[in-house]
Amino acid sequence: MTNQEQLNEFMENLFGNALEAYKKTKEYDFLQEKQEQFNERLAEKESANHDFLENYAFEIGLDEERKNEFVYQQGMRDCVWLLKNVGVLA
Prior knowledge:
Layout: H1 3-22, H2 26-44, H3 50-85
Protein backbone atom coordinates (compact mmCIF):
# COMPACT_ATOMS: atom_id res chain seq x y z
CA MET A 1 0.00 0.00 0.00
CA THR A 2 1.41 3.39 -0.99
CA ASN A 3 1.72 6.34 1.37
CA GLN A 4 -1.12 8.09 -0.50
CA GLU A 5 -3.37 5.04 -0.10
CA GLN A 6 -2.54 4.87 3.60
CA LEU A 7 -3.31 8.57 3.99
CA ASN A 8 -6.60 8.15 2.12
CA GLU A 9 -7.58 5.23 4.34
CA PHE A 10 -6.63 7.20 7.45
CA MET A 11 -8.72 10.18 6.29
CA GLU A 12 -11.66 7.90 5.51
CA ASN A 13 -11.45 6.43 9.01
CA LEU A 14 -11.35 9.88 10.60
CA PHE A 15 -14.33 10.96 8.51
CA GLY A 16 -16.20 7.79 9.46
CA ASN A 17 -15.54 8.45 13.14
CA ALA A 18 -16.71 12.05 12.80
CA LEU A 19 -19.85 10.88 11.03
CA GLU A 20 -20.59 8.36 13.76
CA ALA A 21 -20.16 11.10 16.38
CA TYR A 22 -22.53 13.33 14.39
CA LYS A 23 -25.14 10.57 14.31
CA LYS A 24 -25.30 10.78 18.12
CA THR A 25 -26.37 14.45 18.11
CA LYS A 26 -29.83 15.95 18.48
CA GLU A 27 -29.36 17.73 15.16
CA TYR A 28 -28.97 14.39 13.40
CA ASP A 29 -32.11 13.06 15.11
CA PHE A 30 -34.03 16.15 13.97
CA LEU A 31 -32.85 15.79 10.37
CA GLN A 32 -33.73 12.09 10.38
CA GLU A 33 -37.23 12.93 11.58
CA LYS A 34 -37.53 15.60 8.90
CA GLN A 35 -36.41 13.07 6.26
CA GLU A 36 -38.97 10.52 7.48
CA GLN A 37 -41.73 13.12 7.26
CA PHE A 38 -40.65 13.98 3.72
CA ASN A 39 -40.65 10.31 2.77
CA GLU A 40 -44.15 9.85 4.22
CA ARG A 41 -45.47 12.82 2.25
CA LEU A 42 -43.79 11.52 -0.88
CA ALA A 43 -45.33 8.08 -0.37
CA GLU A 44 -48.78 9.67 -0.08
CA LYS A 45 -48.45 11.31 -3.47
CA GLU A 46 -49.56 8.95 -6.20
CA SER A 47 -48.25 10.73 -9.24
CA ALA A 48 -46.09 10.25 -12.29
CA ASN A 49 -43.46 12.42 -10.65
CA HIS A 50 -43.09 10.14 -7.63
CA ASP A 51 -40.18 8.09 -8.99
CA PHE A 52 -38.47 11.18 -10.33
CA LEU A 53 -38.74 12.97 -6.99
CA GLU A 54 -37.52 9.93 -5.08
CA ASN A 55 -34.49 9.53 -7.36
CA TYR A 56 -33.80 13.27 -7.25
CA ALA A 57 -33.87 13.34 -3.45
CA PHE A 58 -31.56 10.30 -3.32
CA GLU A 59 -29.06 11.89 -5.72
CA ILE A 60 -29.07 15.15 -3.78
CA GLY A 61 -28.32 13.18 -0.63
CA LEU A 62 -25.38 11.45 -2.29
CA ASP A 63 -24.05 14.76 -3.57
CA GLU A 64 -24.29 16.29 -0.10
CA GLU A 65 -22.48 13.33 1.46
CA ARG A 66 -19.61 13.65 -1.02
CA LYS A 67 -19.43 17.42 -0.51
CA ASN A 68 -19.28 16.99 3.26
CA GLU A 69 -16.53 14.39 2.98
CA PHE A 70 -14.52 16.64 0.66
CA VAL A 71 -14.87 19.64 2.97
CA TYR A 72 -13.90 17.53 6.00
CA GLN A 73 -10.79 16.22 4.28
CA GLN A 74 -9.83 19.68 3.07
CA GLY A 75 -10.21 20.95 6.63
CA MET A 76 -7.79 18.26 7.82
CA ARG A 77 -5.28 19.23 5.11
CA ASP A 78 -5.66 22.91 6.01
CA CYS A 79 -5.10 22.10 9.68
CA VAL A 80 -1.86 20.22 8.92
CA TRP A 81 -0.68 23.06 6.65
CA LEU A 82 -1.40 25.62 9.36
CA LEU A 83 0.36 23.60 12.09
CA LYS A 84 3.39 23.16 9.85
CA ASN A 85 3.54 26.88 9.05
CA VAL A 86 3.39 27.93 12.69
CA GLY A 87 6.12 25.39 13.54
CA VAL A 88 4.08 22.96 15.59
CA LEU A 89 4.70 20.13 13.09
CA ALA A 90 7.94 19.48 11.29
